[in-house]
Model the fold of this input.
Amino acid sequence: MVPLWMYLAVAAALFSLGVFGVLARRNAVAILMSVELMLNAVNINLVAFWRYSETGTDLLLNGYAFTAFVLIVAAAEAAVGLAIIITVYRNRRSVIPEEATALKG
Amino acid sequence: MELNAVTIGFAVFTIFTLGGGFGVVTTRNLFQGTIWLMVSLFGVAGYFILLSAPFLAAVQILVYIGAIAILITFAVMLTRSVTRIKVRYIRLLPSFIGSLLVFLILLFGITVPIFGGQLPEAAPQTVASTRDLGAALVSEHGYVVPFMLASVLLTGAMIGAIFIARDEKA
Done:
């Protein structure tokens, strides 16, 4: 059996890759892909803690169900985010977030 | 740690996950980036199988690789100027230092309990079937309210995505 900390270490590495992508990439689609990486790292953590936790409680499925809800929210986030990116591209011919300044005061 | 099917699978899925993630944040061509994202998501699905959550692995493949990655591919195709962006990164060095710092802090917090602390062992009987999850999702002691909220959220997101991305002139 693989110990818990190895799962957590992999999830931490994946999360840091996502942080780097969000901060450094210029393309909005690439930023969204990095956000997906971070969400997946969180999901690994949730399932790993669920698997390695005590089993004395009534609800044994907390981590399992929470991961399913994270998946749902990720799907909604991707759909709306990509719709916004496509609309911004249609109006400004650009996918660089810094150039979408229509709401800047 | 003995060498068995679980540990070998863990190593393989680690290579998939982290290699795919590295490809996502470094590749210049976003089409290849989408493929790398699929590789990484596939590795995460493998972790779910190792952690005895096969339903989540199936959902991961269906929703992430089947839907979200395809959606991202469409977005890449609809915004063709993406391949003409000359500069891949902005603020490369601060981002690298910041994410490395995040990783080190997380790794410190993860590995400190190994020395001296009590390590949690895998619970032997937590293999929850899909039937258990289904029953918990609709039981009033379970997750019926979040379940319905998730339905509303998905409907709202779908309508919102259609409304935002609709072409006014067409």
About this structure: Chain B has two domains: 1-87, 128-170.
